[in-house]
Every structure is written in C-alpha cells, then in structure tokens.
Design goal:
The chain has a three-stranded antiparallel beta sheet with strand order 25-26-27, with no helix packed on it. The chain has a three-stranded mixed beta sheet with strand order 29-28-33, with no helix packed on it. Strands 30-31-32 form a three-stranded antiparallel beta sheet, with no helix packed on it. It is mainly β and 411 residues long. The chain is built from one helix and 33 strands. The N terminus is likely disordered.
Amino acid sequence: MKKLILVMLNICFVFTLTNLCFAGRFEKSGEYYRYFEDDGSVARNKIIEYDRKRYYVNDEGYAVFNSWVDSDGDMYYAGNDGVFKTEGVYEIEGYKYYLNAEGKLQKGWCGEDYTYYGDLEDGFLVNGFQELEIPRDWVTEVEKEKTGWFYFDVNTNKRVFSPDEPYVSKIIGNRRYCFDQNGIMRTGWRMMKETEPVMKGWMYFVEDTTDEFKFGEAVTDTWYAVEPPVEVLPNASVRYFYFNGQGQPRVAQVGKYQKVRLGEKTYLFNEFGFAVYGIQEISGEYYYFGSDVHDCSMKTGYINKDLDGTNDGASYYFEGDGRGLTGVYNNKLYYKGKLQKASSEQKYAGIDVGGGRVYLVNTSGTLMKNRKKLKDGDGCAWNTNASGVVLSKDDEADYTKAEPPELSEDR
C-alpha cells in the first residue's frame, strides 16, 4: 500500500514538472524578456496574458514597455514594466489619456458619467473650451440639441458641470461663465439661485461676442441694455441693468426703490433690477431720473419742459440732492419740484405749499409781492407781504392746494 502511494506521488511530481517546463513563460534575455508559448515556441506580435496581467510581445517575442501598442486598431499602453495600463487617466509624453478596464485607449466621451473627452484622432484628453457633439442619451433643456460648448479643466481635464443646482458659474480667465447640469455652456438670462427679490438671483451671459464681452461671458461691473427675463417680466422692453463684480444686477427690495451712486451719477433701481426713469417718489420726496431708458440718471437744477405728461407747460426745479424743491426759487413757487401757477381763468391763485404759508402767484408762477386788493379772475381781492405770502383775502377767494408732479409708472 505504501509502495502504491509512493508511485502515485512520483507520477504527480513528474506531471507538475512537465507543466512548469512547457507552460507559457517569460525568460530574461539581457535587459529584455522573451515570452515562450506552452509548446516552447516564441510568441510573436500578440497580446498575451501572464500572471493575470496583459503584455505585448513584438515580432521577436520580446515584451515591449513604455510604448503604445496597436492591436487590430485598438491602442494600448505598456508601462515601464511592460504591463498594460488599465482603467484611468495616464499622462504619457506630456499628454493625458483615458484607458478603459481592458486598457484600450478611449476617444470621444469617456470615463464614468462622461467625465472626459478624448480627441477623436489622437485620443489625448482635451481641455479648455470645446464645441462637441452631445451624447444621444442625454436629456437637455433644448429639444434635439446636437452640439454644445463645454469646458474641461486645464489641470484635471474633467468636464465642468453643475452637480446640484440647475446652473453653476465658473471663473475662467478672469471671466465668469454658466454651465448646466450636463456641462453645456448656457447664455442669456439664467436664474442661478432662488432669492427674494427674485431678480437678485439672476445673471446675464452674453449671447454674442462683442468688443467688450466674449460669447457666454457674464456681464459684470458695468451697465448692460437687455430685455428682462420673461419669467420675471413677460413682454417687457429693453431696460438698463447694472451688474456688480459677481454678475448680480442691482436690485431694490420688493415694493421699494434703491438709489445708488455709480461714478459721478445717481440712479434708481427697482425690485426687477433695472434703472427706472421719469419722476419717481422716494419716501415722500420727488426725484427726476431722465426722460427715457437711455438717460436715466438723477437730474438736478431747473428743468423747463413737460415731465409728467400733463401738457400744462409746467417747469420744475430739483435741488442738489435731487429732491424736488418745495418753496421759493428765483421768485417762483415750487411744490415737490413742480412750478405752481394760476390758471388763465384764475389769473392769480393762493397756493398752499404747507408749513402754514400760502403764496400768491400769477399764471407764470411768479410771486405777487406787496400787493393790496389784487383781484383774481373771479373779482376776489388778495393782500400779500414782501415775500408774496398771503396776508388776507376776500371771503369768496379759495386757496389752491399745491400740486406735486404726476409720478412716472414703474418703468
């Protein structure tokens, strides 16, 4: 029995030695390794698997290393130990490449969740701005969108995208751009976050390259004329917005105005983010911010034209801080900036501007000073002092309440 066991062990040992001698193997030859097949022949021009790793041997059977390998049109890279690189990004001769789990060089969109893009000709990972085809299985905000602009980080070569919010802004070369959840660069008005007032969370990214802006760049630190976003104000015409250094428009609180000095001029912004014009009321005071959207800075001094659309030939005076004057200037009477005057039928009118004083003015708004029994259009007599303040009047005469300007609409 013991003899039989010994014979069996000898047979197994011989069989094992035979396998070891004739199994595929590498043998060192100088500085290189040659691969021999199971039958002892030299393997040539093929990919071989050895010890669960993959190699490539050339026409002399030697394993190549630090080299690209072309096998049936697929490219692989053998590292400094001859083993194929797999699953990841590798920098080779100054360029980065993405190889899959089998070690194949990937071109086009590649990596988990399309993280990278390999050049279609040479396979190196692109960086910077690229206009590329959009993968067919993506859901985008524009139906049947075929191409888009993307940005790949110059250090990591990864696609920039918004992981959580609908959009993310990224500073690239001192300019700010917008990318959606797919990484497609977006232009026009974009709501970057929910805010109150709602307009504060919007930014504008230019839709065409100009002398001042590049395509897709956020408007920052300047004025820009554009229609408001339709989601905020449908059917609104072009208005002037001022965007700060982060690309946010100047915005007032809901239902209020914000007066802002920019450079040498002062402007009034509403809750929708654009500068209003015309006559506006702020905390009971009246101000004038130009006659149209192109000239909406605060005005001061004497203005001799119809500002409020009443066609009554009114003139106005606004003080140095912009407030409409209430009181006397250059022998004329104003109330909240508007010249007060008698109608042609009245001839003279006692105007109450508050403060316990009533002034007598004629049809041009001039003060009637030191007058006695000055009769108006109804034959009523007025008496005034040296300042034009009414001292007395006939019982039939009525005071006229001072009229402020007509306010402009919220434009």
